[in-house]
Each structure stands twice: as structure tokens, then as C-alpha cells.
């Protein structure tokens, strides 16, 4: 019932509004619009001609100075006795009789050495209660493949950063410990992971 009333009242209302807009537009079109007289256009010449000046004419009359004649080439040497001998010098290698043990100077044994250390990401949840610089000391083992494992936190200035420090150390890569030219486990490596809050 309500939609029927709206339909009956809406159609005549829309006809009246449309007719009013049509008459308003017709009145606007019939209205005379006086245009301002066109002003004289500004003439711009982008191909300006360069006039000859006294400086340009002076450059045309400039003459380069003549150079002195070059010196003659050095005289050729045709005397074969003036050339160096290319035979070389014959000498005997001296013999040294001494019993010296100098060693090889190479020791293949070495401790685990860091290759890749990825810096930690500062967690957003820890930024509100953190100072400008925080440190987490971690301990871990290095496998014969150079991977870090058994990561534990030894000491920390902010416990909120412990998990981020351990995740960072998990991605580190080491050269393994070498004993008798064989890779071995390196246990108990300790290092500090520093977090710096950029402001």
C-alpha cells in the first residue's frame, strides 16, 4: 500500500521537477552572452636572428700564430759495437751445507670462524619498553657443517628480545672447527647480540 502511494505521488512530482529544469535550461540558452573583444595577440618569434657584433667580426679576423719548425730527429746509430750483449752471464749455484729444519709453517687446525652473521630484527612489541641499545648474550654449538644449534640465552638486558636474538643466531653460518684436517663440533660458543633502536 505504501509503495502505491509513493508511486502515485512520485510520478507527478518528477514530471514537475523535470519540466522546471527544462524551462530553466531553455532560459539560460536564450540569454545573450556578450564576449569581450579579443585583445591583440602577442607575437612571439622563437627564431631570433643573431646580429653580427664587433666581437664576432673580430673573431673572424683572428689568425693563429705560426709555430717554430720542430727540431730534427736524433741521428741514427749504425755502429754494431754500440749494442749490448745478450748472451747473459754464466755462474755456478753455490752449495750450502747446513741441516736446518724450518717446518712447513702451515697448521690446518683452527677454531670455528663466523662467515655470515645476519643482524636481528627489532620486534615492534618490544619497542615501547626498550632503551636505545639492548644486548642479549647467547651460547650455541657449531656443527661440522657450520650450522648453529643448541642456542640458549645466557644473559639479557631485556627479556623481550631473547626470541629475536635466538632467531637471528639460527641463520648464522660458520666455518667449522678443524682438527687434523677434519671438521668437528665446536661447543659452547658465546657471543653478544646487540639491538639498536633507530629513532
UniProtKB/TrEMBL annotation:
UniProt membrane topology term: Single-pass membrane protein
Record InterPro entries: TonB-dependent_transducer, TonB/TolA_C, TonB_C
Subcellular location: Cell inner membrane
PROSITE patterns assigned to the protein according to its UniProt record, in alphabetical order: TONB_CTD
Keywords: Cell inner membrane, Cell membrane, Membrane, Protein transport, Transmembrane, Transmembrane helix, Transport
Ranges of biased composition (kind: Pro residues): 68-77
TM segment ranges: 6-29
Chain residue ranges for the region called Disordered: 56-85
All residue ranges annotated as the TonB C-terminal domain in the record: 107-199
Family: Belongs to the TonB family.
Protein name as catalogued: Energy transducer TonB
Organism: Hyphococcus lacteus
Amino acid at each position: 500500500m505504501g509503495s502505491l502511494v509513493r508511486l502515485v505521488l512520485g510520478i507527478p512530482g518528477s514530471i514537475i521537477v523535470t519540466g522546471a529544469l527544462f524551462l530553466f535550461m531553455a532560459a539560460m540558452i536564450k540569454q545573450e552572452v556578450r564576449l569581450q573583444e579579443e585583445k591583440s595577440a602577442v607575437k612571439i618569434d622563437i627564431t631570433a636572428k643573431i646580429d653580427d657584433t664587433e666581437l664576432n667580426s673580430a673573431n673572424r679576423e683572428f689568425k693563429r700564430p705560426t709555430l717554430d719548425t720542430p727540431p730534427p730527429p736524433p741521428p741514427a746509430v749504425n755502429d754494431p759495437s754500440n749494442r749490448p750483449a745478450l748472451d747473459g752471464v754464466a755462474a755456478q749455484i753455490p752449495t750450502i751445507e747446513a741441516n736446518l729444519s724450518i717446518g712447513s709453517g702451515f697448521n690446518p687446525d683452527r677454531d670455528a670462524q663466523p662467515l655470515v652473521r645476519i643482524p636481528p630484527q627489532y620486534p615492534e612489541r618490544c619497542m615501547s619498553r626498550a632503551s636505545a641499545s639492548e644486548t642479549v648474550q647467547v651460547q650455541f654449538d657449531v656443527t661440522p657443517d657450520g650450522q648453529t644449534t643448541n642456542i640458549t640465552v645466557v644473559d639479557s638486558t631485556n627479556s623481550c628480545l631473547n626470541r629475536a636474538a635466538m632467531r637471528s643466531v639460527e641463520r648464522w653460518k660458520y666455518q667449522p672447527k678443524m682438527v687434523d684436517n677434519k671438521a668437528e663440533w665446536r661447543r659452547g660458543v658465546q657471543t653478544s647480540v646487540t639491538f639498536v633502536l633507530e629513532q
